[in-house]
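Support request, please re-run this one:
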Amino acid sequence: MNETKPQTAGEGGLAAPTRHPLAWREPSFYDQEAIDKELERVFDICHGCRRCVSLCQSFPILFDLVDNSPTMEMDGVAKADFSKVVEQCYLCDLCYQTKCPYVPPHEWNLDFPHLMLRAKAAAFQRGEVSDARQRLTNTTAFGKLASIPVITEIANASNRSPTLRKLTSKLLDVHPDAHLPEFHSATARRLVKNLPAPVAVTPKPAGTTRGRVAIFVTCYGNYNMPKVVEDLVVVLRHNGIETKLVEREKCCGMPKLELGDLQAVDVFKRDNLPVLAQAVADGWDLMAPIPSCVLMFRQEIPLMYPEDAEVQVVKRAIFDPFEYLMQRHKAGLFSTEFKNTLGKVVYHAPCHQRVQNIGPKTKDMLNLIPGTELEFIERCSGHDGTYGIRNETYELAKKIGKPVSTRAERANAAFVTSDCPMAADHIAHGMQNPPETQHPISLLRRAYGI
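Re-run finished. Output below.
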C-alpha cells in the first residue's frame, strides 16, 4: 500500500495563514542566543525576498545592514546590529497579514512581528527599556490623573507650551514637536451617564450580532476622545441596539505589548477578561472604538493565552463598530435616513483594523451617505502607537506618513477621518492646511443629524 506523504505549503499556496501561540511564559522565550539564531534565519529569508521594503523602517534598515556588510549577506551583519531592526518594528502586523508569502503553514514558518515582539520582551526583561518609555505607556494612570479638572487644564496647557514640552521630552520621551491629544475632565463615562435615558428596545439578532452591545471604552476613548464614545452610544441606540458601557476596564495592553512588557499585559488581562466574559455571558456583544484594542482581544491576548476559555469567549464576541453595523445593515436593521451630507472626506484605513481581515466596512458605510465623496487611503499613517511621538522615531514617523498627508492635502476635503483617531491627527499634523479631523462614528452621527 502506498503511503501518502504529508504536504508542506509552498509559496503561493492557497492555505489560510495560521498563527502560533506565544510561548511567553517559557524561559526559552527570552534566551537571547536562541533569539539571535532565529533573527538571523528570518532576516536572511527577508533579505532574499525584500517585498516588505515599503512597509516600515525595519526592512530598509535590515537591507542596508546586509548591503553594507563585508559579505553583502547575513553572515556579514553583526548580531549587535540586530536590535536596530527590532527597534523599528511597531507591530502593525501588515507584513504578516498582507505581504509575506512565508507565513505558516509555509515550511519556513515566518512570523516577523512576533519575532520582533519576542526580541523586545527579552530586552525589556533585561532592563534595557528606559524609564521614560515605560512612563509613556502608562495610559490608564495618565488618563485618570489628567481627568481631574485642575490637572486637565495644566496637562493641556503643558502640551501647548514649547518650554514645558522640552521638560516632557525628557520625562516621557516625547518629541517637542509631536502632536499630543488633549485630555478631558468630562470623561466618556461621565458623558454617557448624562445622556437621556434610552428608549426600551427588543434586541434583534442579525448575523453574528445579538443587538445588545457593551462598549469597552478604552483609555484613549475615556480620557482623550470622550465625545466619540458618546457619539458611538448615540448612533447604536439610534439603530435600535441596546447599549451600555462595560462595568469597568483597564488598558487593553497594546502600549505595553509594543514595549515588550508582557507581564504588564498579563496584569491588564487579569483585570479585564472576567468583566468582559461576564458581559458576554449576560447576553451582550462587545465593542471598542479603537482598532488596536479590538485587535488585542481578538488576536494578541488569545495567542498569549490559547487555553483560556474566557479569552476565547471574548475573542468571539468583540466587534469593530462598523463591522457590527454592516451586519445589521445587511439584515435591514440599519437606518439609512441621513439628514446631512458630508461632502468630500479623506478616509484612512488604519493598519490594526486592516489586519483583522474584516474588509473596508467603514468605507462601505460612509459611502451610504448621500452627497459624500471619499478619498480612500490604505497606507500607514506613520503614527503607530508611541512610535509617532517618541524623540527617536518622530522624524521617521513623519517620513512614513508624509505620502498620506500629501495625498490628504491634495484632496481638499472637508474632513480627515480614520478609525484610529491618533492616525487621523498624525495625518493632519503633517499637512500645511489641515481640515477638521473627526472619527467616522462622529461623521455618521453628523449625517444622521442627531
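The longest strand covers residues 343-348. The mean pLDDT is 90.
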